[in-house]
Specification:
This protein has strands spanning 2-7, 10-12, 18-26, 33-39, 46-52, 57-59, 67-72, 77-82, 91-98, 103-105, 109-113. With 115 residues, the protein is mainly beta. The strands form two sheets. Strands 2, 4, 5, 6, 9, 10 and 11 form a seven-stranded mixed beta sheet that branches. Strands 1-3-8-7 form a four-stranded antiparallel beta sheet, with no helix packed on it. Strand 4 and strand 5 (46-52) form a beta hairpin.
Length: 115
Amino acid sequence: QVQLVESGGGLVQPGGSLRLSCAASGSIFSINTMEWYRQVPGKQREIVARIASGGSTNYSGSVKGRFTISKDIGKNTLYLQMNSLKHGDTAAYCCSAATISSSAWGQGTPVTVSS
């Protein structure tokens, strides 16, 4: 079992930056890929970024060039650096960890981009 806890969300002005963290615990050795998702009430959940166990990354077109996913293996923590934030980035962000047999999800952290 893998447990995930996000932090770092909050209120930021357009053009600003935030860094989200996702602390993993439990059977972290079994994790293959980790991802950041976001969801706005009434809309479908959207994948934002993915990082594989080897470090390769993928981003959705809406955040590519502005967001960076990374991980610190020593700290068992996944990060999402978000720069040049826009109103459309407002959402609840959550992280996910996929193992060979299951997926774990965090509880989410809210991000509000507003002036």
